[in-house]
Amino acid sequence: MMGNRKRKTEDLVLLGYPGISGSRFLWKKWEERAEQDSSIFSPRYVREERRRIEKLPVLSWHADKRSFSARNILLFADPARQGEPIPLYEKDVQAKENAGEIERGEVESLFPALFERFSVQEVYSLGAGGILSGLWYLGGEGLSFSYEKIFFLQSTIELCEAFQESPYTLDSEGAFLLRMESGEDFSDFARERGIAAARIGTFQEGRKRMRKDAYGESYLYRPDEESMEK
């Protein structure tokens, strides 16, 4: 009977690094400080990390086409694989880019047949309020997730420590949360296409938003308006 049919398990996937747009703001704020503490961040480290951020691929979601495009993404330049994205695990990337074996470019449809292949149900663009706001928004029907599986750039964590901010509420424009049935498969595919991704939770029946990881279990509470403005 329809009433007894068990709902398929749906996964929650994080696509792209959260907190990048917020990190840009904090790096600018750091450099505008009258007195910068070089014991926390050396000038060289600041330059390198700001450069690292600007080298990340930029994702865009096109709802009308139900597809992601990417710019500033690393692509193979050799004739045999020209235009194909470089996997995240590719070695000696900088040397290959310097040698002309890799180039930066654009991909109009990064994940072909995304909805059909991975049974995607929803795509949520992160922004003000960070990933915490996205978890609250998507988890209204029940969600279990792990903070341990949420990935950040190490410099984002360090910046938040310096400014006493939470990386989980840092502005995350350019990162996305996806609701789908094949979260692990998609995460593997995204990394093959040069984009950081991870299955960070599962949707469950009920209206509880639960964090479950090595640190224990707790409820997720609605982010306050002040944190969403940061």
Account of the protein in words:
By secondary structure, the chain is α+β, with helices and mostly antiparallel strands. It has a single domain (10-55, 112-228), classed as Alpha-Beta Complex (Phosphoribosyl-aminoimidazole Synthetase, Chain A, domain 2), CATH 3.90.650. Helices cover 30% and strands 25% of the residues. It contains eight helices and ten strands. Strands 5-7-1-8-6-9-10 form a seven-stranded mixed sheet. Strands 2-3-4 form a three-stranded antiparallel sheet. A hairpin with a 4-residue loop joins β2 (58-62) and β3 (67-76). α1 (20-31) crosses α6. The protein is flat, with a radius of gyration of 19 Å. The model is unreliable at 1-6 and 225-230 (pLDDT under 50).
Task: Kindly report the average pLDDT value.
Answer: 88
- How does CATH name the architecture? Alpha-Beta Complex
Domains counted in the coordinates: how many?
Answer: 1
Tell me the strand percentage band: 15-25%
How is the main sheet built? Answer: 7 strands, mixed
| Shape label | flat
Task: Please list the strands of the largest sheet in the order they lie side by side.
Answer: 5-7-1-8-6-9-10
| Gyration radius from CA atoms, angstroms | 19 Å
Protein topology:
Blueprint: E1 10-15, H1 20-31, H2 43-54, E2 58-62, E3 67-76, H3 93-98, E4 102-107, H4 114-118, E5 120-125, H5 130-138, E6 143-145, H6 154-163, E7 176-180, H7 183-192, E8 197-203, E9 209-213, E10 216-219, H8 225-228
Parallel strand pairs: 6-9
Antiparallel strand pairs: 1-7, 1-8, 2-3, 3-4, 5-7, 6-8, 9-10
